[in-house]
């Protein structure tokens, strides 16, 4: 889409009102929305509240200089991709180099040529827009590919699929409680961690899931399958941190003394939480209630205390939620399963406590002819599900 067809906002920061008036008039004539500030601090505050599409920035200002303004923008994950174009009377090479070193995309010296400024602004806006569109396309492609993988796993290996979804839902809850970022990495690690397990023979899957003692050969087979999946994911752009989380999923050391969960890097945090949730799910498969599982895990003390507190928050279902028996065809996203779902051969497809997503509902409907019961017990939020 051409720039002229989009509403682009240009922020100009300069402590000289005449400069603001001139640049503002030039860019408004080109149909841009223009915001002007004489203070770097005021500009930063405004940027946090309503990010512009590009910043034109003077260097010499009385409160904080343009270099520091740019550094603060680039240090904020939400703002770092806004292009910064320095417009300054400083003409020495070292000043220009410093502008690029702190994150500026371009540098124009005063007095400037009107046409040059217009073209540079247009070019950087086009580049920024193209990059955003490319990232959206890549993100949609990646999301779609992962959905295909997980949906296929739901068809060929319902147990692994069900477990991956349960762990992913629990991961979402814990990440929300602990405010871990980026949230999506943790969620992807949770659901994709089952790909390796899904490739194991059924008997070994069940033995591993129930935490039964494995022979040296079986343990090696499990470890190899997990490492293989992690290596495959690591080769996919943007999934490298997710692969590291899965590789760290056996991380069960107790964090004591001066070490806390916050001091671990993100892949280690993901591996630690994933390890806990695997253990939590394995104990829940034995029929224990959430409170019993958390007490056992807390007594074992293999994880930071803050994770057990987060588990308790995760396991609570709001008191105002209601229970009922509902036909599978009428399930809605967000409802919580209150009984195990087994197929006609007695295999467990979904465990009690799973929160239904559209993907789970779709996979369950695919299996409906192989189910002895067409209605199930669920809990639902009466304010969302009428």
Outline the structure in words.
The chain is α/β, with parallel strands linked by helices and 386 residues long. The chain has 15 helices and ten strands. Strands 2-1-3-4-5 form a five-stranded parallel sheet, sandwiched between helices. The chain has a three-stranded antiparallel sheet with strand order 6-10-7, with no helix packed on it. Strand 8 and strand 9 (348-350) form a beta hairpin. The radius of gyration is 27 Å and the shape is elongated.
* Percent helix range: 40-55%
Radius of gyration from the CA trace? 27 Å
Mean pLDDT: 83
Shape: elongated
| Strand order within the widest beta sheet | 2-1-3-4-5
Helix/strand order: EHEHEHEHEHHHHHHHHHHEEEEHE
Structural class comes to alpha/beta
Question: How much beta, percentage-wise?
Answer: 5-15%
Number of helices: 15
Cα(first) to Cα(last) distance is 42 Å
β-strand number: 10
Biggest sheet architecture:
5 strands, parallel
Spans of at least 5 consecutive residues with low confidence: 253-258
Quick overview:
The chain has 386 residues and is α/β, with parallel strands linked by helices.
Offer a few descriptive terms.
386 residues; five-stranded parallel beta sheet; three-stranded antiparallel beta sheet; alpha/beta
SSE layout:
Layout: E1 9-13, H1 17-29, E2 33-37, H2 40-49, E3 54-57, H3 66-75, E4 84-88, H4 93-101, E5 106-109, H5 114-156, H6 158-178, H7 183-192, H8 194-198, H9 202-209, H10 216-234, H11 240-247, H12 266-284, H13 290-300, H14 305-315, E6 322-327, E7 336-337, E8 341-342, E9 348-350, H15 358-366, E10 375-380
Parallel strand pairs: 1-2, 1-3, 3-4, 4-5
Antiparallel strand pairs: 6-10, 7-10, 8-9
